[in-house]
Specification:
Length: 132
């Protein structure tokens, strides 16, 4: 295609895009909902309790609804560091500050292919960009 033909083609394409009313947020919402529904089905096939939330606010409300009254939530590393007498920052503060201590015990990223027996896992997928 010659340059002038290409320019004409692109101008026509630009006009069609400009003239059609595209709601980008609505397109993203529908895309995330479709992908989220497929992911929920796959997770449920592998034994996980899976949920889709359209926004971070909806996800937060869902998460809070899953936690029973009086429950304590939280990374067991600080207590295990006390148990094993390890001098990590979490022993002093009671929380994990993501330290670089050579003897830290929170060094594992786990991939679960299926839900382990006798366990409860909830996966919440959020249909909103939360960074990268």
């Amino acid at each position: 295609m010659k340059r002038d033909e290409l320019e004409q083609c692109l101008k026509g394409w630009e006009v069609r895009l400009r003239d059609s009313a595209h709601d980008v947020e609505e397109i993203q919402r529908r895309f995330y909902a479709s992908k989220g529904a497929a992911a929920v089905r796959s997770l449920e096939k592998n034994g996980f309790a899976a949920h889709y939330a359209a926004s971070r606010g909806e996800a937060a409300a869902l998460l809070l609804s899953l936690i029973p009254d009086g429950a304590v939530v939280g990374v067991a590393a600080p207590m295990n560091n006390l148990k094993y007498d390890r001098a990590c920052a979490c022993v002093k503060t009671g929380r994990c500050p993501s330290c670089d201590a050579p003897n830290r015990i929170c060094n594992v990223t786990t991939i679960l292919h299926k839900k382990p027996m006798r366990s409860d896992y909830h996966v919440i997928l959020i249909g909103e960009s939360l960074g990268f």
